[in-house]
Amino acid sequence: MVLMQVLVFEDAPNGVEGALAAGMQVVWVPDPNCVKAIARTGGSAPQPTITISSLQEFDPRLFGLPAF
Questions:
Q1: What's the total number of domains in the chain?
Q2: Does residue 64 lie in a domain region?
């Protein structure tokens, strides 16, 4: 059996939930329109490993990866 570690970058709530259900770590870079829609409908946002507003904010060291 091969053990794989996967880090997912996702912009949609359904993608975050799917990746979490598969046991993956998730960096959520939410589409501002999705965030507004969730707030408007009173829904709950997914609970990713971390949430950032831009890929430029990503720090690979948080996941044991080498710095850029």
A1: 1
A2: no
Distance CA 36, CA 3 (A): 37
**Is the pTM for the entire model greater than 0.85?**
no
Reported as a pLDDT band with limits 50, 70 and 90, residue 27 is very high
* Assigned domain for 45 exists: yes
Q: Classify 16 as helix, strand or coil.
A: helix
Q: Secondary structure of 18-48 in the HEC alphabet?
A: HHHHCCCEEEECCCHHHHHHHHHHCCCCCCC
Q: How far, in Å, CA of 14 to CA of 8, rounded? A: 13
